[in-house]
Fold this sequence. Notes:
Layout: E1 5-12, H1 16-25, E2 29-32, H2 40-44, E3 51-54, E4 62-63, H3 71-76, H4 79-88, E5 93-95, E6 100-103, H5 108-120, E7 124-126, E8 129-136, E9 141-147, E10 150-161, H6 176-183, E11 188-194, E12 198-199, E13 212-218, E14 223-230, E15 234-236, H7 238-244, E16 253-256, H8 263-274, H9 279-283, H10 289-299, H11 310-321, E17 323-325, E18 329-330, E19 338-343, E20 361-363, E21 371-372, H12 377-395
Parallel strand pairs: 1-2, 1-10, 2-7, 10-20
Antiparallel strand pairs: 3-6, 4-21, 5-6, 8-9, 9-10, 11-19, 12-15, 12-18, 13-14, 13-16, 14-15, 16-17
Amino acid sequence: MAGDMFYETVILGAGAAGMxxxxxxxPGTLVLDHARNPGEKIRISGGGRCNFTNLDVTPQNYxxxxxxxxxxxxxxxxxxxxxxxxxxxGIAWHEKTLGQLFCDGSAKQIVAMxxxxxxxxxxxxxxxxxxxxxxxxxxxxxxxxxxxxxxxxLSCTNLVLATGGKSIPKMGATGLAYDIARQFDLPLLPTxxxxxxxxxxxxxxxxxxxxxxxxxxxxxxxxFDEALLFTHRGLSGPAVLQLSSYWHDGEDITVDLDPxxxxxxxxxxxxxxxGRRQLNTELSQHLPGRLVEFLTPELxxxxxxxxxxxxxxxxxxxxxxxxxxxxGGTEGYRTAEVTLGGIDTNALSSxxxxxxxxxxxxxIGEAVDVTGWLGGYNFQWAWASGHAAGTAxxxxx
Length: 397
């Protein structure tokens, strides 16, 4: 085979999916990454503690043009498999909310485990290595790289695209996987930022920056009950990030500021004992004061509570539960946690992640059109898809 150096498998990307794949692909595997350190997105995730999976992973927690594609990989490498692996490494963990699992210590423990695992499996890791060209050969693929100021050529039988998507470019994210997929005629679906804050024109919510409360955010495609955070630029918080993956430019969203539906009864009771007080004063017992002040002109909250009929209170509560907003956009890839879209799953085997039309070419992780919810689901897809490709490579043709 042509080339200065031969590896059975070359994996582009030393992130979660790439390093997981290397562990299972085994000897004769090389992982390449242009970054100074492996697993940088792992290191910064979860506030430095890595939300590495979720107790409640199901295919329904993923977005894809083909919602069935993720089922095979997720079934063959589950959250329990990864939990067992980190427990074997002595990495302590805890559950936060909604089944989200985090390291007790540092996300660096996960990175160290993945590096140790791939090296123990006989794989090599090259960092600060840039890919400048990829081409097919009679026996596989040839990769031209720049390392230590020198150009080198590598040849391989199997090439794995694990470079992720476009999210967080300051971490070094590029569209390399898409470029290579396009070169080899693998179809791509349009990409956009996911799990990302909404922006609004004219700093609409600047007076509320830093205010947070439980809420329900929804549109025609999804609904999420989690925290809402107002920012200088617009809206953030888990409920917003979740819904952003289901939102398209120009669409409205609905904010429910009373997701438990108990506000009407609470105000009726207060009317009996505190009727002389202002409506906005009493409402501030249930919603943040700055938010009530912000909404007072729009909802006419300056009247006495005693003057509010049941119908008037119902009307108010309905307005608070159906606050319709139109985001101007999102903060984009700069702060997005994931990239929606990417390599079309119809071009890949759901069992092996191998391209149907290109033997030996695989795509895994975020580069593929499979995007998880906030809460550890995207890491679980990285582990599962990396495992699927790695075990397929190790098994051979």
